[in-house]
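User: Quick one: structure for sequence A, then sequence B.

Assistant: Sequence A:
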Amino acid sequence: MTGAVVAASSALPGWAAAAARTLTPQETGAPTMRSVEFDNNGITMAGNIYFPAGFDQARRYPAIISIHPGGGVKEQTAGLYAQRLAEQGFVTLAFDASHQGASGGMPRFLDDPMRRVGDVYSAVDYLTTLPYIDAGRIGALGICAGSGAAIKASSTERRIKAVATVSAVDVGAASRKGWDGKGKASDQIAGLEAAAAQRTAEAAGAAPVYVPYHEPLEVA
């Protein structure tokens, strides 16, 4: 795990020195964390900010947004990477996707890839309002399905200066072809037909249907 974090941080251009610099005695110790909220087009987002040891509000720090996997929350993988990156000198924000975890948004448990991209935009907005963040050095780290949101957001969001992924998953391809990549075109059409029928039903007042993020794994 530590090696993966070091590799991700070293991929951020011009920031390797910040990550690898020797800490002074006043800066040694563990990172600290603070829970925060920020706005995302009317949805209240819940996040955790991790601060390097010896954090000084009078300084300006490079920042990284840690984007959690599908079905995850900020306290899990994204939070662990955020903590490890804070140990290397970055202020790091992990947050729950909109409609998920402690963040707002209805319906609950919605996992819409483009909305997750919008979540990243709002996280960047929030970081730029913090006086101790160097707005010219904001990066994004996507983990598993969060990688797609990180890459898509970074392709158009010019305030994201660097991007890295861990165990990247192409959610679009997985949705079309299944997790094993063997899905047929006929399966895709059947899925679209089922989704269309369900939207029609919900428009008439039917309850939403929840489906698993992926098929259960078979254990031999």
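Sequence B:
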Amino acid sequence: MKPLVIAAHSGHELLLWKWLRNERPDFVVLTNGAGSTGVPRLEPTVDNLARAGANWIPEVVQPVADADIYQALLEGDTHLFLQWVHALTAHVLAQGIDCIVADEAEDYNPSHDLCRLLANQVAAHAAARGRPVVSLGYPTVGHPSPEARLSSEHHVVVELDDRELQAKLDDMHGYARSFGGQLERELAGFIAKFGAQAYGRECLFAAQPTHYEQAQAPATKPLFEIVGEERVAAGIYKHVIRGAHLQTVADRLRGAAR
């Protein structure tokens, strides 16, 4: 297998800690992870990938600030996203990639959902050009090894032994401490909710189309809308990114592919 990973944010590589070491994929990150702090998080990600033996390829996708993605979503501007789809498709074809792995769309962060949308587009473009690929996704904020999904969905699982799990957790905590604030709170919340042992299995599931690609409204209001509304009310943000913004981008990407 010759895989390509497409991640929305720096740090997501740690969720695939052992899988990266087994498969040594090519790896791209869409954003520099600066977020509201303005402090990029790429350097430790590059280190993490090097230690895992993965191949970071910024010449294919050069990460941008989160704010750049948010602005493009708000404006329905697909120029950057189409550029990424074309560059990634060309890489898949040129390098003989046969598996694409990317964040799942979980209605948690618009960049995560966009990442899955773009990965699906790349897989479709490659297949249309005679290069079908296996397309997989992994939870970034949901339970990392959900029993219900494992019993009902096609999947790949990598098991970590106790030593490997401890090394993975140490890396996750070390990464979060390096940037503090929201990252530390999020990691603490996930471990409190799921338990540390849940990260001892790395699960990749057969990729699904997003509800934006299916032109379906989310069953419930996405968390990123709720958080966006709170931050606009607090004067932190000026605008709320809605599912409708992602729907517009999905429609325009689909139209551009025709």
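The longest helix spans residues 110-128. The chain is about 50% helix and 10% strand.

User: Thanks, that's what I needed.
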